[in-house]
Amino acid sequence: MTGDSTQLHLTSDDVDAWLAGVAAPELQRHVDQCSACFELVQAEQALAAQLGTLPLYTPKVDFANRVMASVYIPDPFAIRSLQAARRRLLGSRKAIALAASLALVLLGSMSASAAWTLANRDTLVAAGNWLAGQAAGWAWLGLRSAVLNLIEQPWFAGFRSLVETPGRLAIASAALSLMYLSGILALRRLLAVPPRPVAHANR
Amino acid sequence: MAAKPDLAAKSDQDIVALARAGEEPAYRELIRRYERPIFSLLYRMVRDRELAEDLAQETFVKALNAIESYRPEFKFSSWIFKIANNAAIDHLRRRELDTLSLEGSPHAETPDAIEATALQIGARQESPLDAVEARELGGQIEAAIARLRPEYRSCILLRHVEGRAYEEIAEILSLPLGTVKTYIHRARNELRQALAHLRE
Prior knowledge:
The complex is a heterodimer. Chain A is mainly α. Helix content of chain A is 73%, strand content 0%.
């Protein structure tokens, strides 16, 4: 309410202030002089009182149990263990400082690595090619050494005479294949599960 | 359900902290503190006892299962009333039940269902005369509240039945403070007019 206290009626904020019991003295003076506002505040007070007397209702007795049946409660032991571990790890300033330093070093090195990679792609490609070339050279050297070693063996001359002509090679291959197949068949027999009689199979 | 004395003396924030630590009695204490206010609000919003129980149960289950996401800088009461009010408003929007009957749910088809869903007024008075008077007066107030728009109804119930501050109501209903004040004043005007005959 602003201006002459007898000319302007109460605003809704004034009524709120009145209901809350914090009305300014000029509001009181206005209400004393203005019958419309006096009736308004009387009616508002009566309404607030009536609303305040409305009862609270109670749900059925098993309400809490029905709610609790659908509520997931975390395991207190697991929570306590986690909290204890966290306290142990981050319990002192020294531990926090160490963890923060490690995190900073890790983050810094990752960032530096990413930045260097982006800035030196050509160098990385050249290094990759050099590594691949070296690996191929070492593989070839290894293969050559193995073959030379094989040739130097005393039985190699006999073996070579076995496969010297195509006919001998065919016979040797056939003999080897036959041996392989015989081995497979023998293995299958050895590993086969003995048949069991099935209950009620002979009704 | 009686609460343990040590829990009853604690603040909502302390109880929530215990619930987060996995203490079941803390969950039950939160239910004990808010089951009547939440159920009363929902009952007055939807006017169907069974439905209000279902919505109250849904409210508590939702709140308690999301207790980890509750932010302690806000009042727990605001948070749970907000969940309850949203449940009621969602239901009313779905059913388009803007004005409701004191004589039970409009969806109740049998006499038993009508009785079960009817609002029970003045059931806790001391003498039969008090009970009759309270039933008559309370019934007319409840009827007048039932005729309000749902938004006005939420505001007036939170303000004058639950005794919540304007700022808290604004937070609960996610409305600007000015809108809440307007709704409450309009609701009070409508209620005053509806109950004018009681003062004459």
